[in-house]
Amino acid sequence: MLGDYRIKGRRASEIAADVEQAVGAGLLQPGAALPPLRELADELGVNPNTVAAAYRLLRDRGVIETAGRKGSHIRHRPVTTPRDQVRIPVPPGARDLSGGNPDTALLPPLAPAFAVAAAAGDREPVLYGHSPTDPGLLELARASFRADGAPEGELAVCSGSLDAIERVLTTRLRPGDTVAVEDPGWGSLLDLLPALGLRPAPVALDDQGPLPGSLAEALAAGARAVVVTVRAQNPTGAALTPGRAAELREVLAAHPEVVLIEDDHGYGMVDQPYCSLAVGPAGAVTVRRWAVIRSAAKAYGPDLRLAVMCGERDVVDRVLGRQRLDTGWVSLLLQRAVAELWRTDAAPVRKVAAVYRERRDALLAALAGQGIAAHGESGLNVWVPVPDESGVVAALMQRGWVVAPGARFRLQAPPGVRITAAAMRPEEAPRLASDLAAVLGSAAGRSRLT
Predict the structure, then answer these.
(1) Residue 288's CB: how many other CB atoms inside 10 A?
(2) Rounded CA gap, 285 and 137, in Å?
(3) Weakly modelled stretches of the chain, pLDDT under 50
(4) 8 Å CB contact between 445 and 436
């Protein structure tokens, strides 16, 4: 079952530490089945409850997963090997379309904004006990949320979208709880959940966002939180429409105690309107606990680790209380710089969104011309369902294109590849589409997203 490796330990913490160390050292391979509780308890000379406690610790740490009568086994992707660290080498001269990054040529210059922020810091140095948030940033954020019809709530500043999501989940849920997530979805989020001891419940989606029936199934099965990308969904580019948002609000209204997290990381670089799930057109709030998160990473650069969260009071109070106990606050220098970018970059943002749309549309049109079904309603990426991810990725690499395998983003969804179109020139699209059609052959276009 575990080959030659023998688990050691007398206490639950010792058993769990031994297994975790063996996984990290490569002595226990992903997918390896663990012994049944009583069998390992007999071997170690301990009570079966001790082994059960050790297995719970390992599950909560994201090292193992349990499947009822099928027993427990090492996760195929332990939390020590996140998906985005599995990189495909880019051969010399190949076009790298796998990274998911914005086009650096479309990012605003940072020096002027940081000069303004640094000057403010020089006039009034930030010391312990200083207000942890910049009033100018909060004012701009509140105005943007109101303008888009987001529900009224309290504000918090976090170190990016994933930090904000993690803080909401850890302050509202407990290890073992289930979270409904999009499938395919953001690989970092799919890695975060098992690291927190949470269980993902996959929700299928199409170009308009999560499918209401699939979300209803996840909630009926006991999901206590839902994470939805409202636009620029990674990897499919899905964007909520008013009609789909209304359907999803109806599903959520039947589960008012669920925690709803809206990830609007596309704010500032997409031209699709924001559609809220937390509140309807008449102002009625769908669920009691909610948060809407907007980050600076895609519009202004991934190194600007900042997100503003608008949320229900209790959600935000818990996040801020936990933040005060660890990082304390997000750098005021960074907050002021982002506020300055937000103030001065409104017109260029509209142009950037138009450029990204032109590039996505050019690729989608070229793929359609080859009979290849693809998805990319918004954002930086295009998702192409394929029958064999590894084969398509390898064959495209031989033709000079590097794309991301869909396994980074999937739980149960059919296979696909993600193509980052953010920096693609429209004139490149026909050649890529032609090469992909040649790779897919007669199978092109027969796969579906859902």
Answers:
(1) 13
(2) 25
(3) 442-450
(4) no
